[in-house]
Amino acid sequence: MTKVLAFDIGGTKIAYSIIDENGCFLNEVIKVSTPKSAAGIVELLKTTVKGLEDEIDGVAVSTAGAVNNAGTRITSVPGNLPEGYNQTDFMALTTKPVLVENDANSAGWAEFSIGAAKGCRNAVILTLGTGVGAGIIVDGHLLKGKSGAAGEMHFPVDSGHKRVCSGCGMFDCFESFASGTGLNANAREYMGAEATSYDVIRGLKEGDHQARAAFDKWQDYLIKGLIMVANVFDPEVIVLSGSMAKFVEYDKVSREVNGRILTQPFELKEAAFENNAGMIGAALLLIARIK
Amino acid sequence: MTKVLAFDIGGTKIAYSIIDENGCFLNEVIKVSTPKSAAGIVELLKTTVKGLEDEIDGVAVSTAGAVNNAGTRITSVPGNLPEGYNQTDFMALTTKPVLVENDANSAGWAEFSIGAAKGCRNAVILTLGTGVGAGIIVDGHLLKGKSGAAGEMHFPVDSGHKRVCSGCGMFDCFESFASGTGLNANAREYMGAEATSYDVIRGLKEGDHQARAAFDKWQDYLIKGLIMVANVFDPEVIVLSGSMAKFVEYDKVSREVNGRILTQPFELKEAAFENNAGMIGAALLLIARIK
Q1: What is the CATH number of domain B120-270?
Q2: Structure pTM?
Q3: What does the alpha-carbon distance between residue A154 and residue A69 come to, in Å, rounded to a whole number?
């Protein structure tokens, strides 16, 4: 049974575990705070790999940032990771096979391989967190584009300079409305300067009208993005993952989007995996390459 | 040398010619008015095929409407073609190989194979005509989706119920702003009830301020769509074709879009082929299948 050491590298924490070819975790997932320097991250990765090298067939890395098509290095600097992290030489971690993949792509591949999009050939997995990420499967393959950066969910969905996107700097960008950051902005707009998305979700359960307005605005922009995704990709399924996915009103959103598209109906699903999808997807991509 | 009879079937005319494996026309392109009934279209296709059957290795059809993934039939009813046209049994036209493909996909394939996107692996070809069509090439393959309908350029790019899309019925859809229909609407809005896109283009050359405003609004929405396409697909090149493509200010649009995207820069180009791209693309797709 092939098994690999899988890392998930984010701005606040790094998680790792050993995963087998069925996508099963062979030990508990370890989580540590992300070191404050690029050298610190490399040191952590090296030490971890060294300690487990005899047990594994390779190292899979799911990371924030765009990853090149060869799966060897990061091509953009993720804003929430230390300067110089994009220079990391992942290939030098071990002499065994190493594969790097973007975290939204990795999570998408996990859902496509053994999760909510299993059995599909065309699927889009949207990660609704602080921002919005996308793992896009086209005819059974990850959509990567010329430089590995495909799936950036930044595009104008409004006009009138309503809101600036912290991810791309544009006005009226999808991510600035349909992300957790977007719901926080709605909370402040409808419920007061101190309100957050937590207040929106709590207020929603209590029947608060302002909370409902803040939430509906968030969900309406999500619907706009899903219409684009469905019309452009004609997928069998769209999967929502990430911290915001559990708040979505699936039946209502699915009905609205399917009622407005020109392509054939798709299924809207919540992700099968939570935080560990990135590790699973990167591991499965590497194991497929090894075999 | 393999050669096929290629048709281009649109709402107002049907064109056909014989095309070889280099994409060259072996005779003049014949154009006839599209018959008013589905039976009339079938009759025209049958008669034409019969007269040329001995000279050809197959029949390629570029058509309005979504085409299934097998390339055998139409799955949606194009609004400007007669009722029942979607029932057409293209496979019964001849015992030789037959392939059907959507016209925007066919035009995209022609540009990708031997036109403005030649040598690329990832390219998006937008046809700006009465509506907006897209032929999308992902890692050397046509993006078709689960049912063959992928590439519908219908998605909200504004809010406030500004304009209804005649293609999908949604408010504030990309196509209703960035198409020729969109420029006509701008003409009426800025230049008076009788004005059309022709007045905009003429006024633009004459330095008319209202014409400039109407044109800029059209081009600004095109920019919105190109930002989406570039961020989501990360293509090497975006090609603009169709009757409106010649009016685009390529340098300005390219600079604006490339300045706002998170993916690597792409090249914006005008299509190499004009009206005959659909026939060429369908022919090349069929010839590749025959070989």
Answers
A1: 3.30.420.40
A2: 0.96
A3: 21
